[in-house]
Amino acid sequence: MATVRIPPVLRPKTGGNSEVDAAGGNVGEVLRALTAAHPDTSAQLFDAEGELNRYVNVYLNDEDVRVLDGLETAVKDSDSVVILPAMAGGAF
User: What is the CATH number of the domain that holds 24?
Assistant: First the structure.
């Protein structure tokens, strides 16, 4: 199983866990396993069409999955999937 690193903003939705193990052969399957175990994370990760939400960045071993194969990026058991919500806002 891959290790999914959960950002602080999503930890209340994963029982406070900073890391969760999730099975899957690719990033999409791992994230769907995460949402199956913790349904409240689904709206944060996926849009209405089931694609990765544009306001969340997902990394596989420090590589942005959007520059790899997206949700189809292959995952090994020893891999780490990191979820980082996009940050925006502020004023000048």
Answer: 3.10.20.30
